[in-house]
Specification:
Blueprint lengths: L3 E12 L2 E12 L3 E5 L6 H8 L7 E6 L2 E2 L3 H9 L1 E4 L11 H8 L8 H10 L13 H14 L4 E5 L7 H18 L2 E5 L3 H7 L2 E6 L2 E7 H7 L1 E6 L14 E7 L2 E6 L3 H8 L6 E6 L2 H9 L7
Parallel strand pairs: 3-8, 3-9, 6-7, 7-8
Antiparallel strand pairs: 1-2, 1-4, 4-5, 9-10, 11-13, 11-14, 12-13
Helix pairs in contact: 4-5
Length: about 300
């Protein structure tokens, strides 16, 4: 098992009567691109704020780079090794791109001028333009430049693609994959854009109600699930959902759409015994897995 860059055990946090985290467990392997998924209010932002030392949990533990995040002695060292990009793209509005870069450099002794220039060129960032005059996509690119140039070993991205046009999203996704491949940087990102996550993530966690519902390597999770399409010559029985491994069943006349999380071959074999049944197996998408756990009446978005 690879080293964990982030490790969370039993994390709990309440704000008044609202429970934001309810025993959250999480393990993020070093060098992974980790998609952190959940509906609005699931606890994603609270988790990120705790990892950054912005709030303190009521109980449980969280370690980054093997150091407890609530240890004041370790906090500064942890933050120096992290790059953070927020949905709001917070940058000083009175600065230019060049001013923001020059302001940031002195805080990091290992600043990489070569990477600074590379991303200035790659992202076509105008050095003399004021921050408020940059598009949201340009601000995202500048924040990534600042994070990578200071040598961040862990990038924490909170909805980094929100509101960006598809061409910018595609460019940023490609660059995030390249950053991990070339530098071994671990990327931990929260997003509602499931196709983006599926495109670049190798590990994911799905949380809801402040708890981890599912976590692991994306390929392994997707391999566990299959969608069985069943067409019968007569009305299919009502107890298909009781078969071992069946997660959900959707009906439309003589047709069934069956999601299984295990025993797919055995379930398919039993379904083929139905009168005149034609059964086909299909792989599932991350969206289907996500909606199965937090969707329908459990999920608002």
């Amino acid at each position: 098992m690879s080293e964990a860059i982030i490790e969370i055990q039993g994390l709990r946090k309440s704000f008044g009567s609202h429970t934001a985290l309810d025993g959250l467990d999480l393990r993020v392997p070093a060098g992974s691109v980790f998609g952190f998924l959940g509906r609005n209010g699931a606890g994603k932002t609270t988790t990120i704020k705790h990892l950054l030392g912005l709030i303190k949990a009521d109980s449980g533990s969280a370690h980054v780079f093997g150091q407890p995040v609530d240890d004041r002695g370790a906090a500064v060292g942890i933050r120096r090794r992290i790059g953070f990009v927020t949905e709001e793209k917070d940058l000083y509005p009175y600065m230019t791109v060049d001013g923001m870069i020059r302001f940031t450099r002195p805080f990091f002794h290992g600043w990489r001028h070569d990477l600074e220039q590379r991303y200035l060129d790659l992202f076509a960032l105008p050095r003399d333009k004021l921050i408020p005059r940059l598009s949201k996509g340009m601000r995202s690119k500048l924040m990534i430049l600042l994070a990578i140039s200071h040598g961040a070993e862990l990038l924490i991205l909170d909805e980094p693609m929100e509101g960006l046009d598809p061409t910018v999203v595609e460019q940023l996704l490609r660059e995030l994959v390249a950053i991990t491949a070339e530098r071994g940087t671990t990327i931990f990102f929260s997003s509602h854009q499931l196709p983006d996550v599926e495109q670049i993530a190798d590990h994911v966690a799905i949380i809801d109600g402040g708890k981890t519902l599912l976590s692991g390597a994306l390929d392994d999770l997707k391999a566990r699930y299959q969608r069985l399409s069943v067409v019968c010559s007569a009305e299919p029985p009502s107890d298909v959902g009781r078969l071992d491994g069946v997660e959900s069943v959707r009906r439309s006349g003589r047709m069934l759409s069956v999601l299984v999380s295990r025993n797919a071959d055995a379930v398919a074999a039993q379904l083929r015994q139905l009168p005149g049944a034609l059964v086909e197996c299909f792989p599932v998408t991350l969206k289907e897995v996500f909606l199965e756990h937090v969707g329908n009446n459990k999920c608002s978005g």
